[in-house]
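Q: Protein A?
A:
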Amino acid sequence: GGSADLTELADNLSFEVDDLLPLVDAAQMLGLLTINGVNVTLTQAGKDWASADVLQAKQIFAHQAVNRVPLVKTIYTALKGSQDGQLREDFFRDLLRRGYTSSDAEEQLARAIDWGRYGELYEHEAHTENLILTA
C-alpha cells in the first residue's frame, strides 16, 4: 500500500533500524517518501519510481535529484553552462570545502556524483576526475 512502520520495514528487509535510516533520509531528500513518526509513506514519485522499469526509474530519479538535491542541481547546471560540458571535480570540491570539512566535502561530492551518474545526468571519468554532461 505504499506505507509501512519503519521498525517492521527494517525487520522485513533484515536491517537494523539504524542501518535503514540513511536510506530513508536519502529517499526523503529525493521526495520519494515522507516520514511521520515511525511511519514511512511513498509519495507519488516514490510509487512511480518503485514500479518503473530501469530506464524510467533512472529518469524519475534524475528529475527528483535535480529538483531536490542542491549539489546535484549545481553540478548539472554548471556542466550545462560550461563550454564543453565538462568540469573537473576539484571545482566542486573547492566550493564544498568553503563550508564543510574536507571529509564532509568528499562524502557529499561522492554521493552527488553517484546520484548524477545513476540518473544519467553526468558521467565521471575517474582517471581525469572530470564530470561530463550526458543529459
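Q: Protein B?
A:
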Amino acid sequence: ELRVLLTGLMFLTRIPCPSYCDHHPGFLMLAMGYFPLIGSMIGWWAAGFFDALGVFTANPWLCACGSTMATLWLTMW
C-alpha cells in the first residue's frame, strides 16, 4: 500500500519518492483510490500559502496569485 500511495504522490506532484517507485500502470491504477487524499494535501498546501501571504498583504488578489504559484511549483515545476 505504501508503494501505491507513493506512486500516486509521484504522479500528481514533484515530491521526490524512493527509487523503488515508478509509474507502473498496475500501481498507478490502484493509486487512483488515493488521489482524493493527495489532492486534499495539495489543497492544504495552497491554503497554507494563501493564509501565510495574507499576513503580509491585505490584497486577496496577491494572495491568490501567490497561492497559485506555490501550487504550480508543487505540481509542475
